[in-house]
């Protein structure tokens, strides 16, 4: 499991990333937002970034901040 930190809307968020290589899944958890998501290796794409951006907006995060955060999250997942 990897832990990352990111500042979004002036709040520091802890992001937990876990890769299950056997089942080819990545689990993302952000406790401060009460949000988690599991995705397969095939789902890791720019479409995931757009989906994440829309979900962050639903949580009240500014549109510009949500877009930047979604791209950072996608980059961290690809690094795994």
Report on the structure:
This is YueH-like protein. By secondary structure, the protein is an alpha+beta fold. It contains 2 helices and 4 strands, in the order ββββαα. It has one domain (2-79). A hairpin with a 4-residue loop joins strand 2 (11-20) and strand 3. Helix 1 (46-58) crosses helix 2 (63-79).
Query: Which outline best applies?
Result: globular
As residue ranges, the low-confidence spans are: none
Largest sheet: 4 strands, antiparallel
Strand percentage, roughly? 35-45%
How many DSSP helices?
2
Computed structural class: alpha+beta
Q: Cα distance, first to last residue? A: 10 Å
Tell how many strands the DSSP assignment holds.
4
The figure for the number of domains is: 1
> What topology, given as strand order, has the largest sheet?
1-2-3-4
Protein name: YueH-like protein
Organism: Bacillus coahuilensis p1.1.43
Pfam families: YueH
InterPro entries: Uncharacterised_YueH
In brief, what are we looking at here?
It comes from Bacillus coahuilensis p1.1.43. By secondary structure, the chain is of the alpha+beta class.
Jot down its keywords:
36% strand, globular, four-stranded antiparallel β-sheet, 80 residues, alpha+beta, 2 helices
Topology diagram in text:
Elements: E1 2-8, E2 11-20, E3 25-30, E4 35-40, H1 46-58, H2 63-79
Helix pairs in contact: 1-2
């Amino acid at each position: 499991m990897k832990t990352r930190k990111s500042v979004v809307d002036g709040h520091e968020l802890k992001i937990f990333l876990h890769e299950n290589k056997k089942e080819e899944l990545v689990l993302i958890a952000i406790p401060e937002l009460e949000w988690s998501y599991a995705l397969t290796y095939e789902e890791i794409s720019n479409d995931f970034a757009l989906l994440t951006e829309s979900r962050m907006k639903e949580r009240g995060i500014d549109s510009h901040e949500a877009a930047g955060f979604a791209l950072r999250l996608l980059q961290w997942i690809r690094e795994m």
